[in-house]
Amino acid sequence: MEASSSSLWSSVNSGIVLSLLAVVWTMLWQGLQGLQLQHFLGRHSRRLSRRLAAALDPYLTVTVAEYDGGRMRRSDAYKEAQAYLQRATREAGGGVRHLKAEPDRDPDRLVLSMDDNEEVADEFRGATVWWLAYTAQPREDAGGASYFWGRAARAERRFYRLCFLERDRDLILGEYLPHVRREGRAVMVKNRQRKLFTNISGDSWDSDGSWSHVVFEHPKTFATLAMDPAKKKEVMDDLDAFRKGKEYYARVGKAWKRGYLLYGPPGTGKSTMIAAMANYLDYDVYDIELTSVRTNTDLRKLFIETTSKSIIVIEDIDCSLDLTGKRKKKKQQQAAEGDGAESSGKDGGDKKDGAEKDKEEEKEGKSASKVTLSGVLNFIDGLWSACGGERIIVFTTNHVEKLDPALIRRGRMDKHIEMSYCCFESFRFLARVYLGVDAHPLFDAVAALLREADMTPADVAENLTPKGPGEDADSCLAALVEALHKAKEKKALAKKAKEEAKNKATGKAKKEAAADEADDDDE
């Protein structure tokens, strides 16, 4: 009996001890949680894992992505690495079996680069490194970025991965990578082909536009541009000051860009002026078709993707879009008035036609550009205009008076250049270029007619162009004199018709005013 009681008491004591131990452990564990012991242990475990990995794998890697800034623009480091690796890619010892080819400045050569999943070795001061080219699919959780950046966010992402031994860490990171960037830039300058870009709209409303390009090979230069010599020199001096003005723009706190407004009648050489500017500065040209840009956001994306040393062109900006909204309001007002006038004569069957018309207008509205004046102004000198540098923005127009003053004020369009009708100095230049003559008996007649007739340099050049084996300076200049006489007569007739229309309108206004006065007298 006593033995059983002793055994029971012993069991009770053991239970009490275990319960006390459990309570103490719970309290102790809660205290340790307050000290974030799990994070402490986790850090040490990860550190031990890295040390173990370093012992087993002595290689380090550096990844260079094609795009930075959330796919906003192509990385300079990626382009420089790609250019640097061209030499190693061409050499047989590099071991690259699959190559990609692009046209070179020399028409007989190709620029070669590694295809995906290819690896090439390089040496630098006794250290060996390996470069791997690969692509990766975009993350599935980037839904918002995909919507905002369109196809750019949905496209495959390309990378270069540099692999090297840990013992060469300081050499590679401190000296080799800067060496790669310097040499890559030198190769890019050597192989650079100036390009003419244009924006291509997406296949559907939710796809973004992008740039497409061809090699820029326009032959026009300032040496062959028909323009008043003094004005031509003024433009060239202005371009030189801009090209050399990096420190000046930084000192005064302005983005390194400049706006040019070229205005004048059709055929006065606005487009050829842009080509001459590009050839003079050795810049690329981005020709923006505003009607293909759907929103202000798409316009901003296009601007961000432009490079430095470029001319961004919007030709005939007064015709590209209704930037003021006046025409749209006027059209809506006219439509409303027309509907009001015709509503009394319509029956119930016309409602169907009206619904179909509304659907067509809605469809047209979805496909139309929604770029606004505010978007274009921000494109010119907003915050995003400071992304990059050494850019020239050129607007051309045949009717400068139609443009909003906010669009062409100084600070946006810094220099206004009038491209006028042909003057005598421009004619002499064209005669020397096209006919090889500096003087001729018909020059005086041409000079007198140019003061009275309006003829563009393009029309003068066409008349001075020999069109057959028997034509020479005499026949071409005679043809020009005849064309100038016709232009003079046409101008006189147009002036006379304008005056007659003005007099007719004035007479009509006077008659209406007299009739109103007579009505007032009768009352």
From TrEMBL:
Keyword flag Secreted: no
Membrane-spanning parts: 12-32
Molecular function per GO: ATP binding; ATP hydrolysis activity
Residues annotated as domain AAA+ ATPase: 256-423
Keyword Magnesium: yes
InterPro entries listed in its UniProt record: AAA+_ATPase, AAA_N_dom, At3g28540-like_C, ATPase_AAA_core, ATPase_AAA_CS, Mitochondrial_chaperone_BCS1, P-loop_NTPase
Protein keywords: ATP-binding, Magnesium, Membrane, Nucleotide-binding, Transmembrane, Transmembrane helix
A Pfam family this chain is assigned to: AAA_assoc
Record's catalysed reaction(s): ATP + H2O = ADP + phosphate + H(+)
Bias (Low complexity): 333-343
Protein's name according to its UniProt entry: AAA+ ATPase domain-containing protein
Organism whose genome encodes this protein: Panicum virgatum
